[in-house]
Amino acid sequence: MALVERQVRNGAEESGKRATKLVLVVTKDTLDQVYPPLILATTAAASGLEVDVYFTFWGLKLLDRRSHRKTKLASVGNPALPMPNILGMLPGMTAVTTSMMQRKIKKYWPTIPEMMLQAKEMGVRFHACSPTMGLMGIRKEDLIPQTDDIVGASTFLDWATSPGTATIFV
Amino acid sequence: MNEGPARVAEGEVTVGTVGTVGLLVVDAIGQLCPVPVLRVSQGIKQLKVGDEMEVWATDPGSKSDIAAWTRMTGNELVTVSEEDIHQEHRVGLEADVERKSDSSVHAYKFRIRKMR
After folding, report:
1. Residue B94: per-residue pLDDT
2. Mean pLDDT for the stretch of residues A17-45
């Protein structure tokens, strides 16, 4: 336990100055790959960091009003689920694993749309990946109003490489 | 715990005074990360510099997390203690926590001073 605290303290001392900005990249749209970056985004904002979240590939579905509320938990290719893996292929299995997980999550955390709103209220910025929009046929009008802008790789790299920034890819 | 306001219902906070400083009680018992830290950061906005906050949490990560939050935000973690809270004093416990223990639950109690 003491080790964790010591490592955190040493890390901050060694680099001299702490990062003041956090950039998160969300590339997936499944419960297990969306909650962690949203938890980091809200906690970072609560800790005084400036936060930018870049939604790309399947992650962009979170900014698409048509799929914004439909994040699922994959039943296929997820050996961590408490059931024989082969059952994951059965029709309707994704819906089953999703609702089981959602019931469990509901006791502790807000839903994903609620958490995204909470993040926005805390000043977190949401960015849509422009090439993904072209690739998946998502139009500007399809984006939820909480989307700040539509940007590409260079803009993202400009943030990610600016001084005092930490970047996490999910 | 014989000073200041009484414990409050889950998720609620109360502001009282101890001597001349304000005291805010935040209950995050039964909540998982990031909820305790988010409640602390919401709560501190209601305080003036020098006021204090008493935070209750059961998430084992909160011991390290709340200390880290005070370092990042420049506030002061005055004390951390651990207490076993009895059933009748437990407010807002989630089902999972209740199932684990029939009489008491191990909780962390933090005292934070707003510094900026």
Report:
1. 47
2. 95
Residue B44 to residue B25: CA distance in whole angstroms = 10
| Helix and strand counts by DSSP (H, E) for chain A | 6, 5
Residue B8 included in any domain: no
The ipTM is: 0.77
Is the Cβ of B2 closer than 8 Å to some Cβ of chain A? no
Residue A59 domain flag: yes
Is B13 inside a domain boundary? no
Residue A86 is predicted with a pLDDT of 85
Q: What is the CATH number of the domain that holds A140?
A: 3.40.1260.10
Domain membership flag for residue A100? no
Domain of residue B29 covers 22-113
Given A1, A8, A108, which is nearest B35 (Cβ)? A108
Q: Looking at chain A, which residue has its C-alpha nearest residue B61?
A: A1
Task: Let me know: does A137 contact A67? Beta carbons within 8 Å.
Answer: no
Task: Report yes or no: A86 at the B interface, CB cutoff 8 Å.
Answer: no
Which of B34, B71, B73 lies at the smallest CB-CB distance from A42?
Answer: B34
Query: What are the structure tokens assigned to A86, written together?
Result: 């082969």
Chain B CB contacts of A51 below 8 Å = none
B31 touches chain A (CB under 8 A): yes
Q: Report, as an integer, the average pLDDT of B66-73.
A: 94
Angle among Cα A32, A33, A38 to the nearest 5 degrees reads 105
Q: Quick check: helix, strand or coil at residue A22?
A: strand
pLDDT bucket at A56, cuts 50 / 70 / 90: very high
At B97, which CATH number? 3.30.110.40
Given CB atoms, is B115 within the 8 Å cutoff of chain A? no
Tell me if B14 is assigned to some domain.
no
Count how many domains chain B has: 1
Average pLDDT value for residue range B40-68: 93
The set of catalytic residues of B is 33
Asked, for residue A82, whether it belongs to a domain, the answer is no
Q: Is residue A134 part of a domain?
A: yes
Q: How far apart are CA A120 and CA A114, in angstroms?
A: 10
